[in-house]
Amino acid sequence: MASRQRIVKADNSPLTEVEKEVDRCLADIEASTQSELRGEVAELTLAAVKAVEVPASGKTAVVLVVPYRQYAAVVRRVHGRLIQELEKKLKRHVVIIAQRSIVGLDYKRKNLKVRPRSRTLTSVQDAMLDDIVAPSEVVGRRWRVRADGSKLMKVHLDPKDKAKDNLEEKLWTFAAVYKRLTNKDAAFLFPEHVY
Q: How many domains does the chain fold into?
């Protein structure tokens, strides 16, 4: 598969270095005879690839944006294994999210009678949060409002996944990616007490 067919950009601009690197890694996975991900990667197309700086570690993470239908049909089945393979090849943290659209409050001007709940800003950002931490799960959220009025969302992840997939190392990456995509502060942690 040619790189133009795997990474589909809306404006037909040339591929960046990060996009070329991700494309090479996906082509390697697809060409590998050992990998059980060959079929899934062959069907996969990307809407965007973004590099996100993680200030806490000084590294960069790679965010892959997949069209929603492919995310639901292909990526959800192999999410954990695909991330592991890409992280091995890229030597960086990898996050895969679905491309979702937000319909604003002026939806009646766009000839829509009802705005679907899944297209609201809050719903899209909640779904994005679930995509970022996948294959782990969010078990709780708390909002902390500071004295200056700024908000911090504390996201509690499933403690069973703490040792799995080096998830504890990725907490700062999750926070940086969520901040870049939604412009909201979030702290990811594992709850100390499970009731």
A: 1
